[in-house]
């Protein structure tokens, strides 16, 4: 999309609505460009959001990842560090967390 293709503010729309529509077009173009190789874009989240996705409290969430804990679940998604230092954020892929939930739900219906 070329910004010159976008008309100037029409007289019947307030300026902020026109800007909002233009930004939507720009973001849609950026998202399409990010996926030009056909690979789905994976999102990584930090612990707080990961706990909310799987519906576990913080303690239980980390217990499922600890082999020394009785709540350990070897099928639980593994985390990874975003950097090389110990202070780098730890994240989980959303699609892996959701797949784990689907797996747990499938066990329920048996």
Automatic annotation (TrEMBL):
<protein>
    <submittedName>
        <fullName>AlpA family phage regulatory protein</fullName>
    </submittedName>
</protein>
């Amino acid at each position: 999309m070329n910004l010159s293709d976008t008309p100037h503010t029409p007289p019947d729309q307030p300026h902020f609505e026109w800007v909002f529509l233009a930004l939507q077009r720009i973001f849609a173009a950026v998202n399409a460009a990010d996926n030009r190789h056909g690979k789905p874009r994976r999102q990584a989240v930090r612990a707080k959001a990961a706990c909310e996705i799987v519906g576990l409290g913080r303690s239980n969430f980390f217990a499922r990842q600890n082999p020394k804990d009785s709540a350990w679940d070897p099928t639980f998604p593994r985390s990874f560090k975003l950097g090389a230092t110990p202070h780098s954020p730890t994240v989980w892929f959303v699609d892996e967390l959701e797949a784990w939930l689907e797996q747990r739900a499938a066990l329920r219906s048996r």
